[in-house]
Amino acid sequence: MVQVGLNHFLIVSAILFSLGIFGIVTRKNAVMVLMGIELVLNSANLNFVAFAKYGNFGLSGQIAALFVIILAAAETAIALAIVLNIYKTFSTVNVDEIDNLKE
Amino acid sequence: MTEAVLLNISIAILLLPALGFITLILFGKRIPGPQWVGTSLIFLALCISIYVGFGKLAFYAGQNLIMEGRWIQILNVPVLGQVNFDLGIKLDNLTVIMLFVVNLISFLVHLFSMEYMRGDIRFSRYYAYLGIFTFSMLGIVLTHNILMMYIFWELVGISSYLLIGFWFEKKSASDASKKAFLVNRVGDTGMFIGIMILFTNYHTFTFDTIFAQIAAGNLPFHSSAWLTACGIMIFLGAVGKSAQFPLHVWLPDAMEGPTPVSALIHAATMVAAGVYLVARIFVMLTADAMLTIAVIGMITSFIAATIALTQNDIKKVLAYSTVSQLGYMIMALGVGAYSYAFFHLVTHAFFKACLFLGSGSVIHAMHHEQDLRKMGGLRKKMPITYYAFLISTLAISGVPFTSGFLSKDGILAGTLAFGSLTGHWLIPIVAFLVAMMTAFYMFRLVILAFHGEPRDLHKYEHAHESPFVMAMPLVLLSVLSVFFWYGLNPFNPSTGWFLDKWIKTPTTIVPQNMRFDFMKTEAPVAGSLENAKAGEVKTTNAPIAVGAPKVTKQNESETAIVHSEHYMHAMHQAHYPAMALSLLLGGIGILFSFLLYQWKKIDPDKLAESLKPLYKLSLNKWYFDEIYAATFIGGTLAFSKFLAWFDNKVVDGIVNGAATLTRMVSKLGGLFDHVVVDGFVNFTAYLSGFIGIFFRKFQTGKVQTYVVFVVFSVIILLFIFRPFF
Asked: What is the reported pTM?
């Protein structure tokens, strides 16, 4: 029986982070990109909580994770509003086709 | 009445006409009656000059009053060392008499011009010009140094130029003014060279200092030849201004100016300035210089008198007579008859001004007719003019009881004595011939203009006597041509106050071996020479503060004798023969003119026919104008043509060559700019562009690309900074 330790949490968190980045980079739909961002944020949360449990930081990790969840909710709200506006402007939510920054 | 007062009010005399000039030239057109401004200022100057003359001659007759102040002091000039420029005035008897003469004639001419010039479009400017002329003439008279004299000398030159060309709409008038100016320039250049010879040697312009140096045996460049050259060079200024041969050609042409101007400038005062200059430098003239001067004067008087015989223009006759009389004065200075030369200057100023104003009166009455052949019979119409003219004519012809008789006789006696002492007999012979010719042509003038029957009835009908302001100067001047103003004895002026008390021949200061034999001082006089030297040394050694005028008195050596007893004796002996001869020759001249023109015993036309070559020579003024036109003017033109060619071909060639060279060089420079400099700049721009194009590839504008870059960058940075974790 393998004892679940800090390393396991970190590995899960790293996989989650990588999947999040992969989602951000590869998805065409802007909403899917946002979901990738959520994954990245959650992998960070997992790290906070894991370090809080195995480290000697008291409750700071949990508090920070709570903040991140709140922040993620706010961020998603704003990001969805931005996506709506992008759709209004370009009639698409496909981030591949939106390259106005080039000029 | 102290010296300082006399000197200070002399400056007022000088400045009053200048004030008139400034007022009239600036505000002349706005002042009603500009003639009154000029005339009243000159009248004031005349009154002051009478006062100064009286004060000087009554109380200081034996002294020279000098006021001087340092103008510029330059401490260190290369070669010369310290150089001082002093300004100052000197009052001696010569000066105060000249002051009176200049102011009186100027005043009378101002008065005369009121009527003569009335209605002229530039009336106020005419009076302004008269003012500046009087100012500069007084400056020449008053100054105590030769630099100021030169400045005023040029100022009278320019005012003469302005007044000759006063009616510049006439081409002949503007030509004449240019001619006068240019011919004078020739003489003035010589004078300037002379001044510079003196300045280089003595570092000063002051007459007395220079003379003291020469008297002390300090000759220019230590050579007697330079002293002679210097005297002749300065005399060249007088040759120009006093219209001496060979520069006499301008004066007859100067008659294009208004007639009162001819009376003031070209008869009485400015042309006499040359004589005045020679009188000022008389003491430093060597025997050679004096002989040159005498010969020049002789030639001038002879040529001018022969030309005057045949002229038909009333003013031309008077002009040539002026030239001839000036030649007389110069000749008198040359033979050493200094006092008589100055005496003749004064008497000539009065009677010649009278003659010119008289001719002005005639011309005015005849509506600007100047041709003698159209006059005649004016005696009845213009009695005042006639009698004034007649008295002056008697004076210039040397008839007894006139001033001209006294002065002319003195000059003739001087030449006779000179001839007997040195053997130059030509000078007295020519002088007597000229006296005869003078009497002839002056009476010819009077007879043709005033006697006989009118030749142009129409103009004769309109002729009338001149009004008071024109007649009064004539009367006054003719009265001044009578003997008793100058001495009570009508046959021997040397006992009169003019020559006995006022004008004495100064002691010559050139070394003994450079004088005429008869001018060598004998032993007893040496003491007086030393006295004179001591007096002058006193004045020159005294320090002069910059800017502060200093007043000095010089005692004129009472015992100074220029000439040896020998000369005085010869002069005395010559006096009565000269008088008899001049009376005889003058009488012949007058008789001859009556025979020809009054009684018509001899037909002048036939006489002219029989002497045709001589007559034509005289009528055409010895062809001087033609000779000068062919030689000097033609030469100058040819030379300027050559210079123009040189300019066109050589100088322009050099300039054009330089231009071509510059163009080639700049083309090369352009090429370098184009290829090298521009190439470098363009290369830089191209490189930047290339780099830009390369980095543009990374800017896709897609968010996801940027995220990939960020992630990879973080990973790379993590690898790089791994050792620090």
From this structure: 0.75
Q: Does residue A100 lie in a domain region? A: no
Calculate mean pLDDT across residues B215-242: 88
Q: Which of A26, A95, A103 sits opposite B703 (nearest CB)?
A: A95
B428 contact partners, CB below 8 Å, separation of at least 6: B412, B415, B416, B418, B419
Kindly report, residue by residue over B358-414, the tens digit of the pLDDT: 999 888 888 888 888 888 788 888 888 899 999 999 999 888 888 888 888 888 888
Q: Give, in order, the Cα–Cα distances in Å from B475 to each of B109, B214, B264, B344, B481.
A: 13, 46, 16, 20, 10
Put simply, the answer to whether B701 touches A101 (Cβ < 8 Å) is yes
- What is the domain range of residue A80? 6-90
Q: Which residues pair with B436 in a beta bridge?
A: none
Please say whether the beta carbons of B416 and B574 come within 8 A: yes
Å from A21 to nearest chain B CA?
9
Contacts of B711 in chain A (CB under 8 A): 21, 25
Phi, psi of B503 (to 5 degrees): -110, 115
The CATH number assigned to the domain holding A16 equals: 1.10.287.3510
- Whole-number Å distance between alpha carbons of B539 and B226: 26
DSSP reduced 3-state for B550: strand
ipTM: 0.84
Q: pLDDT-based confidence at B528, cuts 50/70/90?
A: very low
Q: Are the beta carbons of B324 and B252 closer than 8 angstroms? A: no
* Counted domains in chain A: 1
Q: Give me Rg for the CA atoms of chain A.
A: 17
Q: How far apart are the first and last CA of chain B?
A: 119
Give the nearest chain A residue to B712 (CA atoms). A21
Chain B residues with CB-CB distance to A101 below 8 A: 699, 701-703
What is the average pLDDT across A74-84?
Answer: 93
Contact B383, B450 (CB under 8 A): no
Cross-chain CB nearest to B700 (options A21, A33, A99): A99
Bridge-based pairing of strands B63-77 and B81-91 is: antiparallel
Task: Evaluate whether B109 touches B473 at the Cβ level (below 8 Å).
Answer: yes
Residues 6+ apart with CB under 8 A from A101: B699, B701, B702, B703
Residue in chain A nearest B704 by alpha carbon = A25
Q: Which residues contact B402 (CB under 8 A, 6 or more apart)?
A: B351, B391, B394, B395, B481, B482, B483
| B 270-329 near A (Cβ less than 8 A) | none
**B707 contacts on A by Cβ (under 8 Å):** 21, 24-25
How many Å lie between the alpha carbon of A31 and the closest alpha carbon of chain B? 13
Question: What is the average per-residue pLDDT within B305-332?
Answer: 91
Q: Do A101 and B699 touch (CB under 8 A)?
A: yes
With respect to residue A1, please indicate whether it lies within any of the assigned structural domains: no
Chain B environment of A33 (Cβ under 8 Å): 703-704
Is A83 part of a structural domain of the chain? yes
A103 found inside a domain: no
Closest CA to B220 of B251, B241, B193, B190: B193
Tell me phi and psi for residue B126, to 5 degrees. Answer: -60, -45
Confirm or reject contact between B699 and chain A (CB < 8 A).
yes
